[in-house]
## 1
Amino acid sequence: KNIAIFASGTGSNAQKIIDHFRHSDIARVTLIVCNKPGAGVLQIAERENIPSVLIDKTAFFNSDTYIKVLQDAKIDLVVLAGFLWKVPANLVQAFPNRIINIHPALLPKFGGKGMYGHFVHEAVIAAGEKESGITIHFVNEKYDDGETILQERCEITADDTPETVAKKVQALEHRWFPVIVERLLSKI
Ligand SMILES: N[C@@H]1O[C@H](COP(=O)(O)O)[C@@H](O)[C@H]1O
């Protein structure tokens, strides 16, 4: 099975998923799709000899260009790992229940446009939450809205900062995202 990872940033989750399937006979990460020139995930793709695509915004939102790229690459599952653009309806429809996302908070709270990275953890702390965590969900045509696949929690203590919460949440992401990707692929 072929996995495509969409990412806009560092790519630490992409690296964990690549490592998880490195010697797997179930699946392999065979394509990296990025919308940010110079993003860390592109260096990971180069180092790992995985083909990567730097997408053009107009073509992404106004054509089937990248649907064709994914179909030509025989992609079975699209994994969003820190991809900051909303997925257009034609791509969601072309890959029904085949696109998943990870969000660094317990949706439906602290989700939506602009809610990513440290903004999320600042909002969680500012709201006085006693816990945070991760949400892995199917992608539909709205931000951070599709059916939840998994939520895992971490406690927030009085001396936590957005940075310490980010670390706890990242540990959950790296622990669970590869496992969930494998679980879904074993059903496809
Ligand atoms: N959607 C969010 O974007 C971040 C990506 O981090 P990385 O995988 O680029 O390190 C992760 O926190 C993920 O939950």
## 2
Amino acid sequence: MNKAILLIQCPDQKGIVSDVSRFLYSYNGNILEVDQHVDEEMGMFFMRAAWELDSFSLKKDEIASRFEAEIGKKFQMEFKLHFNFPKPKMAVFVSKLSHCLFDILGRHHAGQLEVDIPLVISNHADLKPIVEAFGIPFFYIPVNTSNKDTAEAEQLALLKEHRVDFIVLARYMQVVSAEFIRHFPNRIINIHHSFLPAFVGARPYHAAYERGVKIIGATAHYVTEELDAGPIIEQEVARVRHHNTIPELVQIGQDVEKVTLSKAIKYHLDRKVLTFKNKTIIFY
Ligand SMILES: Nc1nc2c(c(=O)[nH]1)N[C@@H](CN(C=O)c1ccc(C(=O)N[C@@H](CCC(=O)O)C(=O)O)cc1)CN2
């Protein structure tokens, strides 16, 4: 079913839900899903409304301007309008580890992810055979401290050429620049292999082992300039024991990473994530 999704945030006040519903009804909209949340401390209102588009009397490119004129301005809304078609284009960035890549390509192949994957980009050539076995173009762009700018420029050119909508860092072990992130604000999802805010950085399993924790986890978050500090979309944990070695922690953790990342991708694809002050509201 062709759907439109509105994601709204604005100062909280009476009548917002009523006016948004009346707007959709006035243009013959059949509301399919509606959720809202009030952050009382911040005095902020958040809402997600999804409705059937085929019977809607406004054309796709008329909706945002009509909504802004009739509702948005009145409530000083910040809103984003999305459609569940055409399929969004998702680029995957990887380094040497394949577990998250395999999980994503396997779910995509099984029809579990409503996306197109036009390309995979990596700073190592190791995973080229796997990606090409799934019939997806693989681009090897080495990155080091001296060529990061030119490497990122090449990455951005490929992303633009393939009209990529959002990016998944599937254990991509390079810190991306603020300039790169500026092109995809809240559209880069990273899987960090720890239960943030514990153990930021490149080697969380070693840090967890040294600390002797009894629970490890994974965190999917939108990427910001500050490492492992962006808005958290999803987290998951697993119990570990004193006798677990580092390789065992890695194995337990990698299973958690895969599940956590796939959930975060689905929430993003279903337009169920709003961001506010470096945090997220997820309308499950
Ligand atoms: N701007 C950001 N870039 C990236 C983030 C992020 O949150 N903000 N997350 C990382 C992924 N990551 C942890 O989840 C991570 C990746 C890389 C490193 C790191 O220290 N890398 C070294 C090089 C390591 C190597 O070459 O193997 C570096 O870049 O100098 C820490 C954490 C993805 N990017």
